[in-house]
Amino acid sequence: MHEPPEPSFAPGLTARVELTVTDADTAQAVGSGDVPVLGTPRVLALAEAATVAATATRMPAGQTTVGLRVELDHRVPTPVGRTVVAQARLATVDGRRLLFEVTVADGGETVAEARVERVLVDRQRFVERASRAS
User: Fold this and answer.
1) Domain, as residue range, for 96
2) Does the annotation list 67 as a binding residue?
3) Count of domains forming the chain
């Protein structure tokens, strides 16, 4: 079995995604608290979405990335109706491991900062292995 060719990912790749906070995004709705503000799990999902978007246009056929490790500092509450923007930047490439730095902001205010590590995998083999594990 041969390994796929290394992708052409280089530090500096960026992407941004936006989310306008709705009632469905609140800590109350996602079960991470009892306050009606943007829930931390949604902040994490937004950060991960930005990392996926950063590699999407250069992803080799049959490959994908999966989350491996996350560090997240959620610093400021965001009420329903506000729009937050996650900006991801690929900071380090180490073989198949990709380390991203992500900032989530509401206007000029930093809501959260994250470091997201993803690993490049063969999509079909990954799904088959996961199916056998269950």
Assistant:
1) 14-133
2) yes
3) 1
